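Hi everyone,

Forwarding the result from last night's run.
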Amino acid sequence: MRLAALVVLAATCVAGIAQAQQHETISFESRQKGQPVQVTAEIYWPAATGPVPAMVIHHGSSGLSDARGGRVAREMVAMGVAAVVIDSFKPRGVSSTVQDQFSVTGEDFNLDALMALRALGTNARINRTQIGITGFSKGGTSSLMASHERLVVAAGVPAGLRYALHVPFYPACAVQYYRPMTTGAPIYMLLGGADTYVGVEPCQTYAEALRVGGARIEVMVFPGAMHGFDGGRAYFTPQGENYSKCVLQQQANGSWVERTSGIMTTGADGKTIPGAGAKALAACRTLGVSGGGNEAAAKQSMDDLKSYVRRHLQGG
């Protein structure tokens, strides 16, 4: 009996060590409204040995309480791809940005995705040429903006280290650069045709601008699907901030103009015009956000994501 107990104990310890080897937490420096902050991410490792591909997964405005990131992580690990799940909220003391999107700004959120890439580029267990990124809503936006070469360079990402794949799920295309240039990595935008949270047209319009600039971009619109079509039951949050009508567009002279209000928020000299941003957002922002799952779109989008990963990260 004593021998049997020792065998069981040893087996338990081995299992615990194996589990620990398949999961680890990393941290990297980012920003929170101008101040440095350490953001964390969980890496879930596949059983494969040697440097493996990796897929960064960035959550939306509801944070990690949303189960969709976990589903994607499990699928990635099963495919032999490391899943890297960023938590942009907990290190900043935030649980949700649904009712206050500026509690974690889009700029800081986007930076998290690029700083995660920098961190992963030095990890010996990851093939640095096979790192992709996907995300949902706010995280979908960061996965799209991480394709912009000017933002990658501004974040200090070393030359030769770029995301190899971008798969934004229903992002907000509210910031649109003039003649945007991407890194050249493929982009697959997955949109809901009935999305009233971030809208559909802004991303379709911006995708065309990206394409003109040489981007390898494809847009899939799922007819009748709402925001969060890969999630659960339908929801409506009356106090949720809705910026679907707000689109900041950079002009040829370098200034920025909010499309709906026509208000210039930043001059050609690059200086912010005091009070203009708040005035523009007050004119285009509404309250009330909604979304909900769509079984057909959820299944197809997951199949599509896995197909993109096989093609661009695994060479399949």
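Confidence is low (pLDDT under 50) at residues 1-20.

Cheers,
N.
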